[in-house]
Design a protein that fits this description.
Helices cover about 15% and strands about 30% of the residues. With about 110 residues, the chain is an alpha+beta fold. The strands form 3 sheets. Strands 1, 2, 3 and 6 form a 4-stranded antiparallel beta sheet that branches. The longest helix has 9 residues.
């Protein structure tokens, strides 16, 4: 039984995160992006090649009825990715953006 090894690279970016892999047994290995399932609208999950680094904290009336359920998780009152990025413009007070930059800033009180 042979096993193909595929190293995975993760780019946890401030704006987007991406997953990539390359088959090591290929003669000319090519880097491939892994699709990342995410909400693109409430109740709609699609795979995209990048995951926007945004967190949307849904209001109680939005999160009911499984609007932010994923195939591997149910009952969430939040979502990350494309839908969260879109919500940043519409509902900025319920959206977390640039957390990585904020946490790295020397003048930020991380306990606040």
């Amino acid at each position: 039984m042979s096993m193909t090894v595929h190293p995975v690279g993760i780019d946890l970016g401030t704006t987007n995160s991406v997953l990539a892999y390359a088959p090591l047994d290929a003669e000319s290995p090519a880097i491939e992006l892994l699709p990342i399932p995410q909400h693109v609208a409430a109740g709609t999950v699609e795979s995209r090649t990048s995951l926007p680094s945004f967190l949307y904290l849904a209001s109680p009336h939005e999160s009911g009825g499984g609007a932010f359920d994923l195939p591997w998780s149910t009952g969430a009152a939040f979502t990350v990715g494309e839908f969260a990025r879109r919500q940043a413009a519409a509902v900025p007070d319920r959206t977390v953006t640039a957390a990585k930059s904020w946490l790295c800033h020397s003048r930020v009180d991380r306990r606040q």
